[in-house]
Structure formats: C-alpha cells, structure tokens
Amino acid sequence: xxxxxxxHILKRKYRSSKMAPAFNALHTFLYLPNETTHGGTHIKxxxxxxxxxxxxxxxxxxxxxxxxxxxxxQHNVAFGEIQAVTAGLFSPEFWTLDNxxxxxxxxxxxxxxxxxxxxxxxxxxxxxxxxxxxxxYLVTGMLVxxxxxxxxxxxMLAVAVAFGVVIGKEVFGGTGMNILNPALTIRAFLFFxxxxxxxxxxxxxxxAVKRTEEIAAGANLDAIxxxxxxxxxxxxxxxxxxxxxxxxxxxxxxxxxxxxxxxLLGGLFLVFAKIGSWRIMLSSVLGAIVMGLIFNQVVDSGWxxxxxxFYGLMSTTWWHHLLIGGFAFGTVFMATDxxxxxxxxxxxxxxxxxxxxxxIMIRVFNPAYPEGVMLAILLMNxxxxxxxxxxxxxxxxxxxxxxKVKSI
Amino acid sequence: xGLLSKKDSKLxxxxxxxxxxxxxxxxxxxSALAITAxxxxxxxxxxxxxxxxxxxxxxxxxxxxxxxSKIRIIVQLVVVATLVIIVDLVLKAFSYELSKTxxxxxGLIITNCIIMGRFEAFALGxxxxxxxxxxxxxxxxxxxxxxxxxxxxxxxxxxxLLGFKVLGDPIEKTGLYALGYENNGFMLLSPMALxxxxxxxxxxxxxxxxxVEDH
Lengths: 408, 215
Hints:
The structure holds two protein chains of two kinds. Chain A is mainly α. Helix content of chain A is about 65%, strand content about 0%. Chain A folds into two domains: about 50-265, no CATH class; about 275-390, no CATH class. Chain A has 18 helices and no strands. In chain A, helix 3 (about 50-80) runs parallel beside helix 5 and helix 13 packs parallel to helix 17. Chain A starts with a helix and ends with a helix. Chain B is an all-alpha fold. Chain B has a domain at about 20-150. Chain B is globular. The interface of A and B includes residues 159 and 196 of A. Chain B: It is a multi-pass membrane protein. Chain B: Its main location: membrane. Chain B: It is found in: Cell membrane; Endomembrane system. Chain B: It holds the Pfam family Rnf-Nqr.
C-alpha cells in the first residue's frame, strides 16, 4: 500500500477525533488531497497557500546552501586552516567539501529546531482551537535559521521560536492574521533577550565563542575575531572586505544573509513567480539609496567630521549599504511578506520606501542596533494597515470629487 | 468567612480575580510595567498602594457628606497626595535604595487610576468600613498581578528572587548556568512586562469564559 493511501486511511480513521487537523495537515502537505467538493461553483488554481510557501522556500535554498559553505569557510579562515578567497565567485578555497560539512552539521540543527518547535506549536494550537493546520510556518521556519548567527545555542532558538509563534502569530489568530512578521519577531526577541549571542565579533564564526572561553580558561591560543562589516564600520574601523566579497557573500554575518548575489537571484525568482512584490523590493532599495545619498552628502559638506561616532557608517558609499548586513535579505524575503506588508499598490511603494529609508537611518544613528533592517521592517509592519487606510480613503475622496464635478 | 458578611467579603474577593483592576479593568498599567523588573520593588509598591488606597478610601468615605461635589476631585487629590507623601518619606527614611529604584513611581501613585477610580466609584457612596474593605480588595488585586509579573520578570530576567540567586551564579557558572542557561535580558525591558500582563489576561479569560466580551 502506498504512503498516500495509508495516510488517507489514517485520516479517515481519525476524522472525528481531536487529532484530525494534524493528520489532515500531513496529508495535504505531502499530497494533493483526493477529496473533491460536491455542488456549487469551484475555481481550481495551482497557487494555493502550500504552493506559494514552497516557492518562497525554493528561493531561499541557494542562500541556505551558500550559508553552509560560508559557515565552514569563515571557520577555516578564522582558525588559519585556509587562505582567504582571491579568485572571485569560483574560488577553490571556498567551494570545498570540508567547508560545506562544517556548515552543514552546524546549520542542520538550527533548521530542525526551528521547524520542530514552530510546527509543534502550530499543530498544538490547531488541535486546541479545532481548526486546520495552516502552512504559515513553512516559510518562517526556513527564514529563522537564515537570520541568526551560526553559533546561537539551540535552546535559545527554541525559546525564541516558541515566543515568536505564540505571541507574534497565534494570539492574533494564526496565519494571515498576524501584525508582525513572525520570523522577525523571533529575531527581535533573540536580539533583545540574548544580546551577547546576537551581536559582537564572536558569534558569527563557528567556534569563536568556544575559543574565547578556552582562552579565558588559560589556553595559549590566538583570539578569533569575526566582526561583521557593519560592526567594524560602526566602530569607525575599515570594512576589511572587498566589494566583490560583499557581493558574493564571503563575509561574516547571519547564516543566509551574506550573499547579495544569491538573494538577488532569489528575489528575481520570486518576482517572476509573481509571489514577491517587485514594488516593495524596488522602493525599499530606492529608500535605502536616498538615505545613503543624504548621509554621504552630509559628510561631503563637512557637517560631520571624523571625530563623530556616526562618521564610520555615514561615510560609507551609498551603494555599499545595499550589500552589507541583512538589508538585501530583509528587503527580498521579509519586507515582502504579503500578510504584514501593505496591500495596495500605492501603499506598497510608500511602505517599501520607508523600510529602506529607516533601515539605513537606524543603522547609522544607532550603532548598538547595527541591523536596522529588522527594526525598520517591524516598525513598518505596524504602520502598514494605516498606510493602506489612507491610500484607500484617498482614492475614495478622489472618486467622490470626480462625481461632484460631473454632477454639476 | 465568619468575620465578614457575604456582601462584605465579596468586596475583598471580587477584585482579586473576576474584577481585577489590572487584568479586567486595565487600570494602573503604567506602574505595573515600570517597576516590576524586581520582585522586591513590586511588593513594596503593592504595599504602598494598599496603604494609600485602604486609608484614602476611609478618609474620603468619612468626609463624603461634607465634600461639595464641585471640588471633590481636588479634595480627593489632596487626600491621596498626603498619603503618598507619607509613603514616600517612610521609604526614603528606611529603605533609601528601594526608593531610588521606585523613583518617580511612588509619587505617581497619586495619578494611579485605580485610586481615583475607587474614590469616585465607591468611597463617595459607601460607609467607612465597606470603603476600607473595597480599598484593600482592589489594592490586593493590583498587588497580586504586580507580584506575579515581578516574580517572572526577576526570575527569568535576572535569575534571582528578592535578590537571592535561585538559579545559580551567572558569573561563576554554577547551578543552571553551568548547563549554558542565560538570563533573558528582554524580560527586564518594559515591553516584556506588557506581554507578561497580556499572558496573565489570556490565561484568566481562558479559565473563565464569562470574562470574554462578545462583539
């Protein structure tokens, strides 16, 4: 008997029990349901929620795989095992099995914990509230391992995921009802709850924290520093990486956010699959460019001197801001979340522009929160309904005016 | 309760749960968010409010027939302010450190909506004994939530309770910390207090469906 029919039998068996949503979810996740509805008119469309979510996950897979290589590469470079890349994207030092395996064994547990805890809570709530399990967590579960540092302790991730799913989503009524992006809620929780594990120059390189502890215990070893570019710039230091490194992603950072190239490809994929909104992505980049140019102008006109604590990030060339930190990842995969972003087309332009604009502003003005894009998206999530409201009202007003002119 | 009639004991017991000033009436949230990072501060704050509200209700109730209704708010304010100043001075004299932690929030008891609310809604229309019970009941209802929030915030945020290191020493890495546990810094920030109060409200309404408003 095939798995499908076995699942089908199981589903029928438990149909009237409390556990029904769990079996239904498993069945519909793996296969197309073999029930048909009777009577009435139906629209059959391929892009159901499951398909939509899976498309986004597919767009993120390159980032995940690259993140695994990068985790191993950062580890090996920091520990002096290999030389830094020199030959561009296809540097042989980077694409080694050793790099991949180190990253794989480090990142796989993050993915498992993220999905295990998150889906566990989704199933639990579905059973308690007696509704079907929704696919909402599929994307969040993949986003979460990509936006945390590689060395984050697993129990912290589990606590944060539980918090994010319950407080960020379930209390509002589950998938589609949440105000804040759940993945970013999880990251924000981690950031404020355990700041030592989410910032600084240790957590981005696998093994650096352990090395620090060994040195503290008296071992005669070199300390490892894997500061992110944003961190270095915020302290007024040089970035230390070439623009090509930033673009290809051979830099320390959260697991999946480093490679702007792959994020760009993922973004294009989402736009062509008509799942991600190109308006939000484009306007967000525009917003970041405008803010970056303003800051560059401020530096050029001499209002800010090198003694200022904002100088490092403010004097960063405007388009470098698009390559460093989590800006690209947040813009492509999180600002475009259809639930929490603005719904109207005009609203999307405003929303995206402000996300980009505020990201760079937070980055520069508050070096304690170098990851401005997280806070910017969460802030704009809160304002998205307001933006929509005024866009709709504006349209209503315009049409009423037209009506009046005609009737006179 | 043999000591109190059924009607009187309702005055004390109702605000503890089904008519709680914080979780049901959503009053006095401001101080509940601001000073609950430590259990000790929450307890002292609860006692202060208990003193002010219990005594204030009696005073207002005694004067209820001679207060001209046009200036009753001013009279109420004078009464609260007097009591709050007493509390503030006692704290400063006997526990200076704690009064530093509570800082402006002791003074802000004056504007705590629960107190003015009880004066207006109860003490102005009831006798001193019943007003006293009502004041104590409401202050206790306020205190229970404060202590609950303070308990979780201090335990999870600093790993201590009343200053005792119940989870071990985070620097020496003993107890839970030896296993890699770390304090949750978010718990010490005010937004988390709001979420903890929210969770308490959630639990309370799940247990007692009668409290859920229908729309």
